[in-house]
UniProtKB/TrEMBL annotation:
Protein name: TF-B3 domain-containing protein
Organism: Heracleum sosnowskyi
The keyword Transcription regulation appears for this protein: yes
CDD domains tied to this protein: B3_DNA
Entry's localization field: Nucleus
Any Pfam family hit: B3
UniProt KW keywords: DNA-binding, Nucleus, Transcription, Transcription regulation
TF-B3 domain location: 14-107
InterPro entries referenced in this protein's UniProt entry, alphabetically: B3_DNA-bd (IPR003340), DNA-bd_pseudobarrel_sf (IPR015300), Plant_B3_domain (IPR050655)
Main location: nucleus
Keyword 4Fe-4S belongs to the record: no
Length: 217
């Protein structure tokens, strides 16, 4: 797959998403059964995980109940990535037996690593994600790391593919900023349900524009 960068990889590659729990996933990781179909014709037992410019060899193993697991090599990736319960992982298949792995922390921000501290581009968080609950149907609190990047406009724009929705954005000084009026219509138009994972990425600080992505656990 040519011309794929980290900036657009999540738009063009087959992917699956998981919330990491060390009790269940430290030794091996179950691949969602629905993703197995996407590997038809390219299935092999040896893969590479790519993250932060590094790669880890792993084995993809099929067990008796017809489930796939990342097996040998996965514990090393867990250790090197300092994964903890609650981390959110996105696996994007980019071809040539390789997955790109994006990692977010419990707050929904890109996870920071010691070897990336020197890079000023990693010193801010422009992405957060929520697991949609009934309380979030009318408002969503924006993490402070993201909120401090916003312009002081009272509106934010949510972008999904080529469609746009404008929602109120309140509380920029003493209060934490939040999305407000307009969210219900946004969820309705995109058929978002309680329990879905919603990821917001700020792509324009000047105009308060977020791209939004949805997935179901």
């Amino acid at each position: 797959m040519k011309g794929v960068t980290e900036a657009n990889i999540y738009d063009v590659s087959p992917e699956f998403r998981i919330i990491f729990f060390d009790v269940h996933s430290s030794d091996r990781l179950k691949i969602p059964p629905t993703f197995k179909k996407k590997l038809e014709g390219v299935f092999t037992s040896e893969y590479l995980l790519e993250s932060r410019g590094k790669t880890w060899p792993v084995t993809l193993k099929e067990v008796h109940d017809n489930l796939l697991y990342l097996d040998s090599g996965w514990p090393e990736f867990v250790k090197d990535s300092a994964l903890v319960s609650g981390d959110f992982l996105v696996f994007s298949y980019i071809g040539n037996s390789k997955f790109h792995v994006g990692i977010w922390d419990k707050k929904g921000c890109r996870k920071k690593f010691p070897d990336a501290v020197a890079n000023p581009r990693t010193k801010f968080c422009n992405t957060f994600q929520i697991s949609l609950r009934p309380a979030y149907l009318r408002y969503v609190i924006i993490p402070r790391e993201v909120g401090k990047l916003l312009n002081k406009h009272r509106k934010c724009t949510l972008k999904v593919a080529n469609s746009w929705w404008v929602v109120n954005c309140t509380g920029h000084e003493c209060d934490r900023p939040r999305f407000g009026a307009g969210l219900i219509q946004f969820y309705k138009d995109n058929k978002v349900k309680v329990g879905d994972i919603v990821t917001f990425q700020l792509i324009s600080e000047h105009d308060n524009v977020f791209t939004v992505d949805f997935s179901r656990p």
